[in-house]
Amino acid sequence: MRQFQLGEFEELVLLTVGILYHEAYGVAIKNEMEQRLTRGVSVGALQTALQRLEKKGFLKSSDGAGTQERAGRPKRFYHLTAHGKSALEHTRQTRELLWKAIPDVVWNLKTEF
């Protein structure tokens, strides 16, 4: 279903927002992704993905209270929407169907390229 279509990075962002639950804001999402995936995450790519996912209705955001360490600026927190949860579930089911469709013989092949 096109309405639930996610790119790989979008999927990773949504999963990370789910992991962080009420603590999902830009820096926390970036740090969590880098720690769990052992790869760098660009702030620009993350912000673009967050905006795109919010526009698609997979995420909603809200501002927290301003903090002294941020010169009074609030953190923007992200939360999964019901549509976002459905998109993740659809993606998981699709991947599981594809994984299950791979014949066992493929895993037993000794291929070298």
Offer a quick outline of the entry.
56% of the residues lie in helices and 13% in strands.
Structure commentary:
With 113 residues, the protein is of the alpha+beta class. It contains five helices and two strands. It has a two-stranded antiparallel ribbon. Helix 1 crosses helix 3 (43-55). The longest helix has 20 residues, at 82-101.
SSE topology:
Elements: H1 8-20, H2 26-37, H3 43-55, E1 59-66, E2 74-80, H4 82-101, H5 104-108
Antiparallel strand pairs: 1-2
Helix pairs in contact: 1-2, 1-3
Q: How many discrete structural domains? A: 1
Quaternary state reads single chain
Straight-line N-to-C gap: 35 Å
Q: What is the overall pLDDT average?
A: 92
- According to CATH, what is the class? Mainly Alpha
Query: Which percent range describes the beta-strand content?
Result: 5-15%
CATH architecture: Orthogonal Bundle
Keywords for this structure?
5 helices, Arc Repressor Mutant, subunit A, elongated, 13% strand, two-stranded antiparallel sheet, 113 residues, 56% helix, alpha+beta
